[in-house]
Amino acid sequence: MCRNCPLENESARPVYNIQEAETVGQVARAVPRIYAALEDRQADHQSIVVEVVGKIVEQYVSILIESGSTHSYITPRVVEICAFKKVKHRKSWLVQLATGTKRKVNEVVEKCPLVMDGLVTCVDLNVLPLGSYDVLIGMDWLEAHRVKLDYYNKTFECMNEEGNLVVVKGIPKVISVR
User: What is the pTM of this model?
Assistant: First the structure.
């Protein structure tokens, strides 16, 4: 199901401080962050995110696709419901939320099977409370799958595990003009 996962590529490894960085991209991502407001379904009011209904092990989940997030996350509630094995990071780290607060991240669910609008994929998901959402997909997965986001239509194109281009449809949002 997750064979040939781009996340197995060593160059996609997470960097937790500037001293560990080997490339300019790793330096830019040395301070993990989440730009989207996660509480009270605020994605409804943010034009630069895509919300998708997905499934993890027959459990329906709310997924936020957010290019402002350096990493991908799963809420502890879903980890518990699905009885996933969590792995401790060799070194815990802080992620800065849109509110400016920082939260400690010290566990990950590796190669979590995820289905989004028919796209079957795997993703390493850091464990973090996400407010109104179950999963947040960030730049680690988006870059590895060569995602092109269409915020207006709430869709994205990406490469599936077999290397084929697929389109994933998110939840359409009503756009009002004042």
Answer: 0.77
